[in-house]
Amino acid sequence: MSIQLPPLFESRMQRWLGSEYESFIASYDRPRYAGIRVNTLKIDADEFLAASPFGLKPIPWCETGYYIDENQRPGKHPYYHAGLYYIQEPSAMEPAEALRPEPGDRVLDLCAAPGGKSTQIAAKLRGEGILVTNDISAERTKALAKNIEMSGVRNAVVLNETPERIAEKFPAYFDKILIDAPCSGEGMFRKDPDAVRQWEKHSVEVCTVMQRDILDTVASMLASGGRIVYSTCTFSPEENEAMIALFLARHPDFAVGELPHSPLFAPGRPEWAAGLVESGGGLSPLLHEAAPGGEPLLSRPGALAPTARAARIWPHLAEGEGHFVCVLEHTGEKAARACAAGTAGPLVGAGEERPAEAPAGGRKDRGPKAAGRAGDRGGAAPRREDKAARQARGRQKDAYIREEASEETVRRACLDFLAEQVPAPLRGTLLISGDYAYACPVEPERLRGLKVRRSGFQLGMVKAGGRFVPSHALAAALKPAESARTVRLSSAQPEAISYLKGETLTFGQERIERAAGAEAKGYVLVTIDGYSAGWGKWAAGVLKNEYPAGWRWNG
Ligand SMILES: C[S@@+](CC[C@H](N)C(=O)[O-])C[C@H]1O[C@@H](n2cnc3c(N)ncnc32)[C@H](O)[C@@H]1O
């Protein structure tokens, strides 16, 4: 075997897997599994399949997931930069499936960086509802924010907090919570040789203490009747079945829920944890934790039995590196909401005058906004919109994005920019944070005092002189029909890569598709095969490249 596994890990797995052990250990000599998941916020799965430059094979437990041969280098394609898919280990696609987020849900992804499951949840929310995505590591939230933005997510807040502090601000708030827990990473051994070296450092014992604390904290954030999914990428029963059973012992108002089991998944193994409890062994003292003055919690009759309903994904049974997934359902009545599903407090909509068009996320038709678009084919002169109509459009935007106030300059500059450049309503409370403007999907006061990496959908910032610079997040989330100016690049032509490298492009105004009343000069949404990739600023035949420096194509 090419990988040197920790001897203690091998002996434990041998004992538990028995006759299965040989095929489990043989799986370490096979190539690792790689996957991509189509980002349906930007493209339908069928549309992607038709356009895909890759050979793909469906992942049975995730409708939008596909196996890919890594030699096809999915990270080196313009579609990756346009956010059309996320590169994700196949078994890691199951937890967000088990969570079953639906448009309108309020969802917390507590241990979220770098964002594989958050972007999957966001795609399932389809822009409706709220995603609070968090990680305790400040460094890792940078990648989390980047992936959220690259995927065109409009309804997420990115936090860098402890579970306890989030719980203070969001009591009984979320319909669904994902805990993709920090773990000893035994399922990563094939994918990442460093995981073997880290196994001793992030010992099972240390991880179980973190997991127990995280699980205990989230219960108070879940709305009545809500659902938690707990997942790890490790095999140890201390971190899986035992954690679930300890949680159930302390939270009798929860039950293990059914999973939409793939026939390729194996059940949880309560007997492994039970054996450790009986023998007084195991790698975590939590196995023997007792209620004050009482017996060990896991020795209670039937304490571990419900964990058989969890799922284990094994590398020798399914084509995935390995995962443990368990659904925990709150047994209380489903919480009724004062607001319609997906509108948390002061979100746009309820009782307000609302533009006739729904936000265009996910729409395929270009609707009436596109009808007046000029220059589509052959560059006919754009129709002029009169001043009164432009002002009315500005007022409509004002009414649609509710003002949270503070920095008047930023607020005004942002609304003026949106009125001119984004002829489509955006949802959220306009929140000004320093020089930045956000469309915030939650009540802004909930974020006060928290370490926030993104207060919502970042719209842009004001630079010196009051100039509004739209954010890359805004470009990545817009559909072409939502931008006053777009230019279409082809992935088959070198200029798409030139753009992604940050180079200046030169072309005449006839290539700029314009909404009625829009001049050619100004910010242009650059699309690759029709999917937004970033901003450029066009004037006099030159497109100044606004693709962010840290995102550029290298090599
Ligand atoms: C398995 S990784 C998450 C992977 C992520 N869910 C994804 O799909 O891309 C676990 C994460 O938990 C974070 N973490 C560890 N302890 C935490 C805590 N107490 N609260 C929140 N996050 C924590 C780690 O920084 C790490 O990024």
Secondary-structure topology with pairs:
Layout: H1 7-17, H2 21-26, E1 35-38, H3 45-51, E2 56-59, E3 62-68, H4 78-81, E4 85-87, H5 94-99, E5 106-109, H6 116-125, E6 130-134, H7 138-150, E7 156-159, H8 163-169, E8 174-180, H9 193-201, H10 204-218, E9 222-232, H11 241-250, E10 254-256, E11 266-267, H12 270-279, E12 311-313, E13 323-330, H13 367-371, H14 387-400, E14 402-403, H15 408-421, E15 429-433, E16 436-440, E17 452-454, E18 457-463, E19 467-470, H16 472-477, E20 485-489, H17 494-500, E21 505-506, E22 512-514, E23 522-528, E24 531-539, E25 542-545
Parallel strand pairs: 5-6, 5-8, 6-7, 8-9, 14-15, 20-23
Antiparallel strand pairs: 1-3, 1-4, 2-3, 7-17, 9-13, 10-13, 11-12, 12-13, 15-16, 16-18, 18-19, 20-22, 21-25, 23-24, 24-25
The structure holds S-adenosylmethionine.
S-adenosylmethionine (SAM) binds next to helix 6 and helix 10.
